[in-house]
Amino acid sequence: MVAIDRLLAIMAALRDPESGCPWDVEQTFATIAPYTIEEAYEVADAIRRGDRTALKDELGDLLFQVVFHAQMAREAGDFDFEEIAQAICEKMERRHPHVFGDAHIEDAEAQTRAWEEYKAAERAEKGGDDAPKSALDGVALALPALTCAVKLQKRAARVGFEWDDPSGALAKVREEIAEVEAEIANASPPDRLEDEIGDLLFALVNYARMLGVTPEDALRRANDKFAARFRRIEARLAERGKTPESSNLAEMDALWNEIKSAEPKP
């Protein structure tokens, strides 16, 4: 038995209503979806850490999520793992005519544009002639907010809704900062402040994107940097027989600046 057939058989056994695992049996698409997302993030984390052993394990966990959804769909009479695999095979061949056909693609950038054109044509075909058409169709709003913002902006940019250069995006960031400050000055309710801060974050994402910076990567790097520096602050305080709770902001800020200044410049 090949490994994938063994995995499918294991999943079917886990979901057996009489002899399966009670936890697995009671799961639904909705209850499993958060685990699927979590496993995808763990794959990304293993890649970021350069841990190939962990990557193998995490990819297995992610594959198991696909198998889990396929088994539930098979039970409902919708589709099965074979149909999932068949569909993705057909999609890859259809969207790569320069590999599996006679089309010619100049470079990776041209392929990216062609890929989006294929996707748009497929969405139009699925939606029918009367379906509403939008450049934003197909962007899943349930994506992580930073990722969703980038995708929405890229889609809008492709149809001309884009600043001529990053200076326009930077001006928008400054405008949004002023609007946040105005809401604070007016003691606006939390929902108004949330709305304006959301606009500011969206503008920052746009500015970063236009500079060629991936916002998710930039924020993740900032998170790593903050965590490393704060742990050093805790260590320095411990050397003095203190903790952050027994210290004060001025002392910790001074340590932060010392640690920052001692770091090698990237």
Describe the structure.
By secondary structure, this protein is mainly alpha-helical. The protein is 73% helix and 0% strand. The protein contains twelve helices and no strands. The chain has helices at 3-14, 22-25, 29-49, 52-75, 81-95, 97-100, 108-127, 145-158, 166-185, 190-210, 215-239, 249-262. It is extended and about 65 Å long. It starts with a helix and ends with a helix. The mean pLDDT is 92.
Number of helices: 12
What is the number of strand segments? 0
The helix/strand series, from N terminus to C terminus, equals HHHHHHHHHHHH
**Radius of gyration from CA coordinates:** 25 Å
Quick structural summary:
The chain is 73% helix and 0% strand. It is built from twelve helices and no strands. It starts with a helix and ends with a helix.
Q: How is the secondary structure organized here?
A:
Layout lengths: L2 H12 L7 H4 L3 H21 L2 H24 L5 H15 L1 H4 L7 H20 L17 H14 L7 H20 L4 H21 L4 H25 L9 H14 L4
Helix pairs in contact: 1-4, 3-4, 8-10, 9-10, 11-12
